[in-house]
Amino acid sequence: MRRIPRFVSLPRSAKRIRADVSDEIAFDIDMRARDLVGEGMDEATAREQAAREFGDIQQTRDYCEDVDMSIEVEARRVGLLEDSRSDIAIAWRAMRRTPVFAAAVLLTLALGIGANTAVFSVVRRVLIAPLPFRAPNELYRLYTIPSAVDGDDDKLSAIELTDLAAQSRSLSGVTMFGNYGGLTFTDDQRAEQWSNVSVSPNFFSLLGLKLVLGKPFADEDFLKGAPPKAILTYDVWQRDFNADRSIVGKTVQLNAIPFTVSGVLPANFVGPTFRADVLLPLNVDAYLRNARMSRNRSLRSIVRLRPGVSAQQFEAEIAALRPRFEASYPDIKHAGAFIPKSLHSAIIGGAGDVLVMVMTGALVVLLVTCVNIAGLFLSRAAAQRREMGVRTALGASRERLIRQVLTESLLYGIIGGVMGLLLAFALKGVLASEVGTMLPQLGEVRIDALVLAFGAAIAIGSGVAFGLLPALAATRLDVRDALGDAGTRSSSQGRIGTRSSRVLVGAQIAFAVVLVVASGLLTKTFISLVRTNLGFAATDRQVAFIVNLQGRFRYPADRAAFVAALGQRVHAMPGVAAFGYTVSGPWYGGWEGVGFRIEGHEGNELAHVEYATASDEFFSAAGIALRQGRAFGPTDRPGTPPVVIISESVARRFWPNGNAVGSRVRLDNGSPNDTLISREVIGVVADTRQNAMSDPIPTLYVSADQSEIFGPGFVVRTNGDAASLLPAIKETVHSLDPKIPLGYAQTVREIVSSSVKRQQIAMALMVMFAGLSIVLAMLGVYGIMAYAVVARAREFGIRSALGASRRAILLLVLRSGLATTVAGIVAGLAMSMLLSRLIGSMLVGVSTHDVATFIAAPVILIVVALLACLAPARAATRVDPIDVLRMD
User: What is this structure's pTM?
Assistant: First the structure.
């Protein structure tokens, strides 16, 4: 026979145990005193004698209390284990009896928990995990006031940064890096395009980097004429050298120059703004010795604050130093206008906003899921009201019944959590891949112990969340009412379930409104960005790629011959309509500023615009419209009069009367020879943008045939799918020279799409979350209305018997469902007004309180609610009053 622990019927608290022990001791003393009185002793003396015979009362009391408490604890533990095993067995049998219900709950939970765990794995890697540097909270990036041209506000001049390092008392060090680019790596079997960055001498010491192999650059490696050295990233070491531990000291061919490998970076290295394949020494002294280079803002920086110095103190010092910088460097715009930003925030960039928003959306979906499941459990609890009444009548306590219901919900949560964690392993790879397009230096995302703990916590938390309200509702009952007749039970079920269920459904609707509004705002933003006129065509009929000719050919004539041969072969390919190239292009970036003066305007100030070279067919291949004049052509060759083409913003600014074509200009890019060359403006082309978020770029183009070719970016326009030509183009380049790799080959549409990847990812995930929440809300509305129709069947039967039409009953049910929906919509709109500010940084060209979106969301939810209410409403009109009254 099963042992029934005492605490099930009458649990004993510590206070009760102390009282019981005191009563037992008092009883023993009283009984002995009574015996002594019977022997002829007076009562007072008898009690004193009984107490003396009993012994140390306090010691006995403490001992008995300890024994009783240990027995009580053991009884509680054994009883709890036995009851838990029983509850789990009952819950498991209930799951097996209702497989459809169990499958729906478990799949819904798995999706919610899996999505949240996958998102959290990326959030942990990006937002929570500390950077792999010494004291990373002391590291900051320096920015300046954004440029009106391209917003590239993290580049500073070498002289500013060197002066800051000398003047600042808040900093313990300043390091610089720059000279981004591409290098051609070659060996006997292959040729690859490597990305590189050059770093200043204290880069490794300031960050606290320890190499896996070798050692950082030595001071002599930064001197002019020093033998070339390189430090490889861990991925390159693994990929191209099979993790050869003897690589240090060997040479690798980069741009046909032998570089000695000095070391290998650790696997967890995170580039401050880059993901390079190789690091090279940056000769800062060479910058400082050249007056023009020292003031050219082309370097990025990392600074380390002294221990105990706050960012606010550093900002105050910067403000105090700025007037001195402005006076010392009047030729540098906004000299000394340093804006510090934590290195962690600088590395994350816009990806942080996306992840916070996606994590919030995933949690909201999980909350909607819990609310939905709570509604299902609540409806089922109302249907099991008679069973609960029987258990209560047989002596089960409310605490015992609540524990049983919660055990079942926790079992669902745990099983759903396991399924969700398995799903998270698949989802995190997809999510990490998408986020990696915004954050190339993301690195590997793992589901570690903390992520598993998070998944377990939300699984258990979800089980408690969707089980608590049904547990309380199911056990808050009157036994006589629960065991009453059918009519009474029907009405009581309606009372117990409907109100709570309506609250839950209203909450689902409110959360769904928030997600629909957020997805609507992000969708409008994405559409706005896609429709932005970039000034060039961005289609699948154009393919772009880069080749590094400077690393292969020393002389300009050899580079020109290669480009000419490549162009001739590409033109011969079927479907090719145009073939062009440029050194700096609208989607490649890499712009260089150039000054120019208009001839005939003596004494005019030097104007600064962006500078690019372009071939004859570049504008046609890129789809850049010609506004005035002509494009480059066969007459623009070496030895012919130099010409130039300007973009329309340059024409509007410097030739407001529209007479730019035919004017003559002289360029000033630091070379004395260029200032002597007079160039004729032969055309005006459309402005271009580097991406949909940047401003139009005022640009001056010179003919590629009248300037040196270094490492051009090519663009090919076809009459069909350009991507299908890439294998043939790659083979052509290889046949011309097997030591030249094809880099960054993709369609122009893909290049442009990557620039709005942040908004695209956010939009796609939020639309998915919104769609899931709408489905759950629809199921919730349907479930509550279907349950309400069953619970109120007697009422509908009586109404029908008294003459109510089917239309009247239909409208009654629809109004009831819409009332809950409208209440949820009002709450959801209020929350959306407050929360829409959180995604403000993600919006472009769209207000956070966009009227159309805030109107569309309620309309969508009302339509969904009407569809969900329709089937239960029609069922209510088919209730037969005779059958209902016969049941009574």
Answer: 0.73
Q: Which domain holds residue 685?
A: 548-741
56-115 residue pLDDT tens = 788 888 888 788 788 777 766 766 667 667 777 777 887 788 787 788 788 888 888 888
- Return the percentage of the chain with pLDDT > 70, whole number: 85
CB-CB neighbours of 449 under 10 Å: 8
Give the residue from 586, 576, 669 showing the smallest Cα distance to 624. Answer: 586
DSSP state of 724: G
Burial class of 825 by CB neighbour count within 10 A (0 to 12, 13 to 18, 19+):
buried
CA distance 656 to 684: 13
CA distance 429 to 125: 13
* Domain co-membership, 477 together with 502: no
Using an 8 Å Cβ cutoff, are 212 and 268 in contact?
Answer: no
Q: Does residue 565 have a pLDDT over 60?
A: yes
Q: Are β-strands 713-718 and 542-546 bridged in parallel, bridged antiparallel, or unpaired?
A: antiparallel
**Number of domains the chain contains:** 5
Asked whether residue 754 is assigned to any structural domain, the reply reads: no
Cβ neighbours of 556 (radius 10 Å): 15
71 and 104 in a single domain? The answer is no
- What was the pLDDT predicted at 215? 93
Nearest to 231, CA basis, from 259, 258, 256, 255: 259
CA 761, CA 115: separation in Å to the nearest integer? 15
**Using CA atoms, how far apart are residues 836 and 73, in angstroms rounded to an integer?**
52
Looking at residue 7, what is its pLDDT?
36
Q: What type of residue sits at position 100?
A: V
Q: Considering the domain boundaries, does residue 138 fall inside one?
A: no
Are the CB atoms for 515 and 770 separated by under 8 Å?
Answer: yes
Count CB atoms within 10 A of the CB of residue 341.
13
99-123 and 449-475 helices, crossing angle to 10°: 140
Chain centroid, CA 883 distance in Å: 57
Residues 553 and 578 in one domain: yes
Please compute, for residue 205, the number of CA atoms within 13 A of its CA located in the half-sphere on the CB side. Answer: 10
Contact by Cβ (8 Å): 451, 120: yes
- Is residue 804 located within the same domain as residue 870? yes
Kindly report, residue by residue over 281-299, the tens digit of the pLDDT: 999 888 888 877 888 888 8
